[in-house]
Amino acid sequence: MRLSVVPLLSFAVFRPANAHYLFGRLILDGKWTKTWEYIREVSPAEGMSQDLALVAPNTNPYSPDLRCGRNASVSWSPVKAATIRAGDTVGFAAGEPMLQGDRRPWMYHPGYASAWLSKSPTDDLNSYTGDGDWFKILIVTGRTERSLDFTHPDMALYDKLKAVWGTYRADSWNFTIPRATPPGKYLLRFEHIFPNKVDAQFYVNCAHVDIVNDRDDVGNPGPVVKIPGVYKQGQPDVYFSTYDFDFNITTFVPPEPAVWSG
Ligand SMILES: *[C@@H]1O[C@H](CO)[C@@H](O)[C@H](O)[C@H]1NC(C)=O
Ligand SMILES: *[C@@H]1O[C@H](CO)[C@@H](O)[C@H](O)[C@H]1NC(C)=O
Ligand SMILES: *[C@@H]1O[C@H](CO)[C@@H](O)[C@H](O)[C@H]1NC(C)=O
Ligand SMILES: [Cu+2]
């Protein structure tokens, strides 16, 4: 990803004590849409300072908040459904709101990203709780050609152990809706996991999308899972330290399910 190096370097000097993020903006037709325009709004966490409350991650793999974020199992904000043709590219951006005092909204933590779809049983996406089947359409573990370039000498301040992750410090991620996705109204979910031995952090948000597909040979997406239900507290591919001496991104296998590529 091409980005000028100078501003990134100046960001690196001021390290906040804490940094969280959320994905409030959908990237549609190559444009960053407005915060909560296509994404279900989430509620602030209780008992936290205002700057942290909205961006605080979920750390409970069994909470219904694992689906679409805090208090977002139904939509209570005016969310538009984005019309997307199967085979087209969309993205999620770690846009505003952001942690006050943070340098910019981005995937601050090392970890892996994924995208998921769940078809609504009715046309009313607002009332779909996401309790149906989910399938995975993207996983990003190690670096890709879209990852930030940390090899540049000016980026030496960045932690090499973190920069092995493809999404590290990226402000967004784009991916394709599989060509064979059956048409219909879906929740499109983005997830970024910061693995951790005791309290892995789950950053999740859901967009409302209307997938258009006029092929007559649409596929049968799978494997499918329920969310929550997909992760268990303590499972080794979520609850581990990315800084362990013997951690190797090349051989790291992300959690199931496998990606359905259509
Ligand atoms: C995703 O696409 C948007 C719009 O084209 C672009 O601004 C952004 O840089 C892309 N993100 C990455 C990580 O490539
Ligand atoms: C939580 O969601 C409900 C709808 O299910 C909504 O009425 C309520 O305002 C939300 N709570 C907060 C604190 O935003
Ligand atoms: C990581 O694993 C790959 C593939 O087995 C190997 O080539 C590489 O040397 C390993 N890296 C480290 C630092 O051990
Ligand atoms: Cu954080």
Average pLDDT over all residues: 91
Principal-axis shape: globular
CATH fold-level assignment: Coagulation Factor XIII, Chain A, domain 1
Whole-angstrom Rg: 18 Å
Binned, the helix content reads under 10%
Query: Count of helical segments?
Result: 3
Mind telling me which CATH architecture this is?
Distorted Sandwich
Strand order of the largest sheet: 3-9-8-5-6
Domain module count? 1
Sequence of secondary-structure elements? HEEHHEEEEEEE
Q: Report the count of strand segments.
A: 9
Q: What kind of sheet is the major sheet?
A: 5 strands, mixed
Bound molecules: 2-acetamido-2-deoxy-beta-D-glucopyranose, copper (II) ion
The percent range for strand residues is 15-25%
Give the CA-CA distance, first to last residue: 27 Å
| Low-pLDDT windows of residues | 1-17
Judged by helices, strands and strand pairing, the structural class is mainly beta
State the name of the first-level CATH class. Answer: Mainly Beta
Explain what the structure shows:
The protein contains three helices and nine strands. It is mainly beta. The chain has one domain (25-251): Coagulation Factor XIII, Chain A, domain 1 (Distorted Sandwich). Strands 3-9-8-5-6 form a five-stranded mixed sheet. A four-stranded antiparallel sheet has the order 2-1-4-7, with no helix packed on it. The structure holds 2-acetamido-2-deoxy-beta-D-glucopyranose (3 copies) and copper (II) ion (CU). One 2-acetamido-2-deoxy-beta-D-glucopyranose (NAG) is lined by residues 1, 27, 30, 91, 146, 170, 172-174. This is lytic cellulose monooxygenase (C4-dehydrogenating).
